[in-house]
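DM between two lab members

TW: hey, do you still have the Ribosome assembly RNA-binding protein YhbY entry open?
JB: yeah, one sec
JB: this one, 97 aa:
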Amino acid sequence: MTLTGKQKRFLRAQAHHLNPIFQVGKDGVNDNMIKQIAEALEKRELLKVSVLQNCMEDKDDVAAAIADGAEAHIVQVIGNTIVLYKESEENKTITLP
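TW: and the structure you got?
JB:
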């Protein structure tokens, strides 16, 4: 399943007030981080990840690695912030248009 433009716009509006709860630093993305992000996505469905300036990897590569590992959708990469969405199986709170 891919997100339509309308769904991405809706999710961007929902994510606007959120603060990033994960940070990717100089060590980059690792399996433990992906596991924690996947667990957080199951609880929240929508979250932000901040890419710090000392991260050696490109932010688009970081977003793709996290999305692949956590089986999530990239809603937006803006500045050094990545917005991710994954439909929760147990804690569904967001209804997409």
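TW: got it. The first strand starts at residue 22 and ends at 24. DSSP finds three helices and four strands in the chain.
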